[in-house]
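Subject: Sanity check before I submit

Could someone independently write out the structure tokens for this chain? I want to compare against mine line by line before I put it in a report. The sequence has 111 residues.
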Amino acid sequence: MPTYEYLCEDCGPFTDFRPMSESDLPCACPQCRESAPRAYLTAPYMSGLSAARRNAFATNERSAHAPQTTAGTGKSHPSNCGCCSGKSRLTYRHKDGSKSFPSSRPWMISH
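---
Independent answer below. Compare away.
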């Protein structure tokens, strides 16, 4: 439940937890029990994201319509991929274009 600030003419400012539907209604002062109107005494607290998360979200938004691909490179994976860069010692390429890793990862067929 949100906290709202109220200003009693006799006792001064106080806060109270109230439902949002009752946010504009006056509240009874806890000391003198007189009706006090809502007051805006402090700036509202806005929860924000860390710079790293904000940058990650911005990057995702920019690339949502056109994600980076390796099209035009002649490869189906990025240049640092072990299976396409020729760096893999245990990759067997078959005539149909499939690849296998017989000794290092027997559960992996291809990607």
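---
OP: Matches mine. For the report I'm noting this point. Residues 3-36 form one domain.
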